Amino acid sequence: LLRSTESAGILKASAEVMVKSQTQGTVTAVYVGVGNRVSGGQVIARVESELNNTEVSVNLAAYEKARKDYERAQRLAEGDAITAQQLEGLQLQVEAAQARLQGAQRKLSNTAVTAPFSGSVNQVFVKKGGTLGPGVPVCEIVDISRLLLPVKVTEKDVLRIHVGDTARV
């Protein structure tokens, strides 16, 4: 026995996200516009990275120096030429230099703003030459490959609706 009911609702994307900057700096490129399709991981904008490249280079050099100093100290420790405490201090310097290098590499990777999933660009909030800071919106991406339609039904109608029922929208 078919019975119809009417209800209002608004179609919504199955996923939507406001993509935000993880770093600060000047926007050097925006690769998307409203309506463009993007793939997950695709670079959608770039932030100036010269200072971050320099920071990575400096920290890489410091890490390499600390690592070589530690390797030399290990050979000296084998001949009892330095104390275990001195060797431990050099080991800690290597670990600290490595942590600083990883932090600098992370900051550099954040200069490429990427799409978290595939979808369509709904809004773009930045332009080339603009300034970004952490948490500032870059664009909004929506996935409309699957739409959701939340609707409200009466108490009487809710008892007649079951999982798997078909509906005409």
Protein architecture, described:
The two termini are 19 Å apart. The mean pLDDT is 89. Helix 1 (50-78) runs antiparallel to helix 2 (84-109). It is built from 3 helices and 8 strands. The chain has helices spanning 50-78, 84-109, 155-158, and strands spanning 12-20, 25-30, 37-38, 43-47, 112-114, 119-124, 131-132, 137-148. The longest helix has 29 residues, at 50-78. It is an alpha+beta fold and 169 residues long. The strands form 2 sheets. It has a 4-stranded antiparallel β-sheet, with no helix packed on it.
Question: Could you give a short description of this structure?
Answer:
The chain has 169 residues and is α+β, with helices and mostly antiparallel strands. Helix content is 35%, strand content 27%.
Order of helices and strands: EEEEHHEEEEH
Number of helices: 3
Give the end-to-end Cα distance, rounded to a whole number of Å. Answer: 19 Å
Number of strands: 8
Instruction: Give the uncertain stretches in residue-range form.
Output: none
- What proportion of the residues form beta strands (DSSP E)? 25-35%
Average residue pLDDT: 89
In order across it, which strands form the biggest sheet?
A: 1-8-6-3
Indicate the radius of gyration in whole angstroms: 27 Å
The helicity comes to 25-40%
* Spatial shape: elongated
Overall structural class, as computed from helix and strand content, comes to: alpha+beta
Major sheet details: 4 strands, antiparallel
